[in-house]
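input
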Amino acid sequence: MSDLSGSERRKLEKLLGMGGGYVLNFSDRTFGDFFDDYRVEIDADQYKVRGTSKANRMRAFWDVNGNHVVGRVIGG
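output
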């Protein structure tokens, strides 16, 4: 689990435009492609525990993975 604080999560959600279940302008395909670059299977069941929207899968990604993995993906 990453050590993102509540305020850090809120800032990231705002930065990534995560309102309404979206993340930036990703389609489902491009969202998956982005995570594939980091060898993360974002469509796996472990990331669908909060729901299947891109925003919910991103939140689950933050919950499931450690700081190193989350930081690598956030840092691009």
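quick obs: The chain has one domain: 6-75.
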